[in-house]
Amino acid sequence: MLLAAIDIGTNAIRLLVSNVFDQNGLVIAEKASLVRIPVRLGEDVFARGEISEEKIQKLIKTLNAFQLLLEVYQPKAYRAVATSAMREASNGQLVVDQVSRQTGINIEIIDGKDEADLVSKVNTLKLARKNKLVMFVDVGGGSTEISVLENGNVKQAVSFKIGTVRLLNNKVEEGEWNSLEKWLKPYQNESQDLLLVGSGGNINKINKLYGRLAESILPAENLDYALKHLAFFSVQQRVELMGLRPDRADVIIPAAEIFQFILKQTGSTKIYVPKIGLSDGIVTSLYHQLSTAN
Q1: Is 219 within 8 Å of 212 (Cβ atoms)?
Q2: What order of strands is seen across the sheet that includes strand 153-160?
Q3: If exposure means fewest CB atoms within 10 Å of the residue's CB, which of 12, 111, 243, 274 is most exposed?
Q4: CB-based contact 91:133 (threshold 8 Å)
Q5: Do 271 and 210 meet the contact criterion of CB atoms below 8 Å apart?
Q6: What does the radius of gyration of the chain's CA atoms come to, in whole angstroms?
């Protein structure tokens, strides 16, 4: 079943088109196409509390292009969601309404718990068979979403206003770090049974550069080294010498810092990085909905 997802994030906007199918009770989503445009809505929102006209026009142009791609691919269904930046912008709903009129794409502004829940829907059955506790951590530009599954069932889903673009703009309050630390503390005693799963473009790139790629595993010590190594280079050097995209080169360090913090607080020794994200969760959720309806 061909399905599509549009993820309007704080740092970038993505269109994912996937062929989704059931394989022995496990829902598999094979990527047919992924387009990512770095609009950075969060820069406006965290600086002035609203999305500027310039960013609105970039968003509209991006979604008009996505609409054309959807017409070509003709997925059975698609869903468009907006996350941290849009839900915190004072003009977020106005922007959604304007986009709908000019592109024909209806956007849902979802909260952090919904976002965490969507990410946790990817390959959960496979992970649940092997691990009693699975903690999904999705680090975005504006927030970090965490969902915990116990024996395959969602136990908790939370969101913290700690994100890469927010950190770059010095907009993360100390109390938010304290809240995250307090929330993670009970899991220190369960670190032996806990599998930490990282999602998002930054952890995927970090694992590609520094992890055990064949196993999709990023050991804690490799992440520590990655932070030290990346810090040796300027943002421009990360682009020119390491091949990072300009919109990745500056946020990759704050992303690594967030994952490092979570590793230390849980006592985990590694992160499993299966190259998933919110978009994968959206198409998986769509598949479940359509399969149930049929």
Answers
A1: yes
A2: 153-160, 144-150, 133-139, 194-199, 270-272, 217-219
A3: 243
A4: no
A5: no
A6: 18
Measured CA to CA, the distance from residue 148 to residue 145 in angstroms comes to 10
- 217 CB-near residues (< 8 Å, 6+ apart): 207, 211, 270, 271, 272, 273
- Give pLDDT tens digits for 175-211: 999 999 999 998 887 767 788 999 888 999 999 999 9
Contact 120, 27 (CB under 8 A): no
pTM over 0.70: yes
Q: Let me know how long the chain is.
A: 294
Location of structure tokens 């196409």: 33
Residue 44 CB contacts under 8 Å (≥ 6 apart), including other chains? 50, 51, 52, 55, 85, 89
